């Protein structure tokens, strides 16, 4: 089971504002903040997400093929998360819509280029 996923960022304050807004839409609180790391999630809940400056001190880079998928409660929430992300400076990687018969998702990259999606199954 995945406990949490972490993505690297260039600007922790900017990333915090971006992910705070999306976490609020998902009903997920910020768990903690340090000078180099912010995490959202609930103790003993579903997997959380964190953003951080790379520990090795080198500039962050985006992993090729890596993506964080945010589970929404319904298609309307997928649409809201996608539109919220775009309004906060995300770039489009594929607007919300069906991907097959039982998968609905919208894809975007956060302001640092990390790829995410909001999705619902069923």
From TrEMBL:
Organism: Hyphomonas hirschiana VP5
Any Pfam family the entry gives: Glyoxalase
Membrane-spanning parts: none
Domain VOC as annotated: residue spans: 1-121
Signal peptide feature range: none
Cited InterPro entries: Glyas_Bleomycin-R_OHBP_Dase (IPR029068), Glyas_Fos-R_dOase_dom (IPR004360), VOC_core (IPR037523)
SUPFAM superfamilies assigned: Glyoxalase/Bleomycin resistance protein/Dihydroxybiphenyl dioxygenase (SSF54593)
Descriptive protein name: Glyoxalase family protein
Record-linked PANTHER family: BLL2941 PROTEIN, GLYOXALASE FAMILY PROTEIN (AFU_ORTHOLOGUE AFUA_5G14830)
